[in-house]
Amino acid sequence: MFNIDDLKSYSIAQRYAKNKVIIKEGDAMPYSLYIVLSGTVRVVKNYGEFDQSVVAKLGPGDFFGEMSLFMKKPRTATVITAEESVILEVKQTNVYELIRSNPEMIYSILKTLCARLDEANSRVRSLGSN
Prior knowledge:
The chain is α+β, with helices and mostly antiparallel strands. The protein has helices at residues 4-7, 66-71, 92-101, 104-128; strands at residues 12-16, 21-23, 32-38, 41-45, 53-58, 63-64, 78-81, 85-91. It has four helices and eight strands, in the order αββββββαββαα.
């Protein structure tokens, strides 16, 4: 999805241990896009509550944090490593600069967002048919 070489000058790579919270639901800052280089992460709603649920598992090449980044709203979920992982963080100003210099990147982002929306719509439809 993303050309890692293009991202290197725009991002910070960080290694996270297993079960480490990367972003927390409700937090507003930083507005960054995160890309999984290695390992896997869980996207969790209501983390630590009795009704918590894993809404997605993401692996190498997947990204998260885009909703807060583009909408400038608090995080809608908590993201936790499922195993030791290396994550790239691209700060908001760098994302915009990266997109300007690599306009084809926006297509990759939009394609992924549409697939996620389609999957969410399918889940909603299946709940309605029960």
